[in-house]
Amino acid sequence: MLNTAKVFAVALAATVLAAMYAAAQEDATKPAGYGHRLEQVRDRGKILCADNTELVAWSWIDEDGKNRGFGPDYCRAYAAAVFGDATDDNWEIVNITFAERPTVMQSGEIDVMTIANTWTAHREVHWGNFVDIVHYAGLGVISSKDSGIVPNDWQTLDGTTGCTGAGTNYVQMAADMESEYGITFELALYEIGGVRDAYDAGRCDFVLTGSDGTGSFVRQLTRSTPDDHNIWTSVFGKDPWAMLVPHGDDQWFDLIRMVGWILVNAEELGVTQDNVEDMFANSPSVKVQRLLGAEGTWGQDRLQIADDVAVNIIKEVGNFGEIIHRYYSAEAEEKGWGFYRERGPDNLYLRGGLMYVPENT
Amino acid sequence: MADRASVTGVADVADQVRPPVASTGPLGWVRANLLDTWYNALLTLGVLVALYYLVRGFGGWVLLTAEWAVLTQNLQVLLVGQYPDEEIWRAGAVMLALPFVLGLGWSVWPGFCRRLAISLAVAAPLVAALPVEFASLAAGFRVYLLLNTVLVGAGWLLGRSTVFGSARSVLATWLVLFLGGLVFLRGFAASEALPFVGTKQWGGLMVTLLLSQAGIVISFPLGILFALGRRSSMAFVRVACVAYIEVLRGTPILALLFVTQVLLPLLLPDWMDMDRLTRGLVALILNNSAYMAENVRGGLQSVPSGQLEAARALGMRVHHITARIVLPQALRNVLPAIVGQFIILFKDTAVISLLGLLDFLGTANAILSGRQQWFNAEIEMFLFVAAVYWVFTYAMTSVSRAIERSMSKGVG
Prior knowledge:
- The complex is a heterodimer.
- Chain A is of the alpha/beta class.
- Chain A has 14 helices and 11 strands.
- Chain A folds into 3 domains: 1-30; 36-128 and 246-351, D-Maltodextrin-Binding Protein, domain 2 (3-Layer(aba) Sandwich); 137-239, D-Maltodextrin-Binding Protein, domain 2 (3-Layer(aba) Sandwich), CATH 3.40.190.
- In chain A, 40% of the residues lie in helices and 17% in strands.
- In chain A, the strands form 3 sheets. In chain A, strands 6, 7, 8, 9, 10 and 11 form a 6-stranded mixed sheet that branches. Chain A has a 3-stranded parallel sheet with strand order 4-1-5, with helices on both faces. Chain A has a two-stranded antiparallel sheet with strand order 2-3.
- The longest helix of chain A is centred in the first third of the chain and has 28 residues, at 2-29.
- The termini of chain A are far apart.
- Chain B has helices at residues 2-16, 25-33, 38-65, 69-80, 88-95, 97-108, 112-128, 140-160, 167-186, 204-230, 235-249, 253-267, 276-302, 305-313, 318-333, 335-348, 360-370, 378-411.
- Chain B folds into 2 domains: 17-65, no CATH class; 69-411, MetI-like fold, CATH 1.10.3720.10.
- Chain B contains 18 helices and no strands.
- Chain B is globular and about 85 Å long.
- Chain B is mainly α.
- The interface between A and B is large, with 47 and 46 residues.
């Protein structure tokens, strides 16, 4: 009995010592400050992007189990920027839930978050640094033509009944909508999947849902055709989506941000996945030459990435417009890769959108 | 006169009573059990009509209305998740351990193992013969299913030879194949033939089966240790074990999962960092070992203290008394409860899907919500998922029942 007690005491002491030693080591190995993250990614040989697999067009898995979608394409673009190209081995989608977002950012276990993420002040302060807005969502409205509601006229919602998902922030936004427009309506709450059935059964005159999902919502109705409904082009509230990186490493933040600029500038300059090599060799435009790194640099050396980083990125995923087209177009809908929606604020400023990024010079 | 009358009476009766055709055989059974009174006949008719509509409705839906493409198109992902395409043979090879071990066990436990092995050996070719396209898995999948049958046979043949034909060697084979399988699935960073595949890419039914096996292998001995610790004479050990059991048994498994998934990475130092799947496994083990400890404690208390005193009087050491006198009887007494806990653990693995881990249920959810074309295939998908879970739990309950039967035989 005495022996057991001795062994136990020694084991306990050893464990405590090991834990103390580990705690002392911890601070030395945690990434912090300029340049640590890139070094860590290079050592690992892989960039880790936090996303999930459950959002049509944005992030999903195909029949072979490969991650696809808008978010994974951005992850591939980051891998191409750091490693020169994106292979199956040098980028990885870490599948997380929405509830885990703050934790994975604070623990620093992932390099960049590509999950569908609404940018708010609280999250900017507590989670990490958001990069630029890539997607402009909001509260979308679908109303049935029988209801007498006039599309895009908020006043006509007065006195009607709406359906939305219980426990979503749409409930709060609906209250904001009522006070902003001075109207009142009944709001029936259903579990997310039940909203479709309730609306289909005629239990409400209109539906409030993410502006991204209005098109697919209408097409999934079984007792009516899309022609029986109006999808409002007006959207309520601001719901900007952006990628974000952990706090504390400005080099990494710059690098991730530059990839986004390159994608948008490439679309503006007409550089596509097909013509990027040709443009690199032959384009007479100085702007194109600067973007692709054929002439001068804008600081690739400071970010420790190749001068022709833009060529690598565009070769891998195409420009911003091509990525959108891949998942939000009629072709995408036909292939089952996403769904059709008009390009609204996420269009280039030249075409009436809000995509306006500084030059890569 | 009286005699004559009675004799002719017997003869008359013998003439009148025909052989009782209608009260024996299937027809007789129907008459005796289903149509014996007018109200039973009415009940029978009612049930038949209801059954007819149920079968017609459900059968018609299964055969005509349901769109099974969601399963055949995504079968690979449902089975092995995001395991890389070119390495998928490794996942297939590891999962073949199951039919092999079942075949091996056939000769050792002819009761339940035989039935399971034969069911698998028959079912696999039947699935292979289904007239559907297995999409990305293609023809190789049918061959793979037939391999299941072949391996059941191979295991059976090997089990008949004396070397492998013991319970201990079957369990050892299973353990070796299971642990070896984990290494084989994971691969090595520097290897060409077996390149590294992280647990992040494991998924589907494979992960559910691996998780429940690992959970059982680890939480069972842990549970025994905590049950023994709870009865220890050392105050610290006793208090620690009681605290462990009571705290973890009093915590919902979902809360525990959140703790391991969300808090562990913040609490643990970097060098101890676990991947997300292992963190999920830790939660399962923490919860189930506490329940297991209470099951085992029930067994320990069922062993009369006279046996302990007798063993002590004979001069046996404490660990000998525990290992050779108390535990064998204790475990035998609560075996049904232990197998019941295994079944609960198997079903509990589905909870990890709530934290974004792609086990069988999580994969099904991801497929349904990630692609528009599968939005309306929820019923087909979840019916399939439920059926698969049921097949495995039913296999486990039949094992449990067979063990109970054999035990009562031994005792009685």
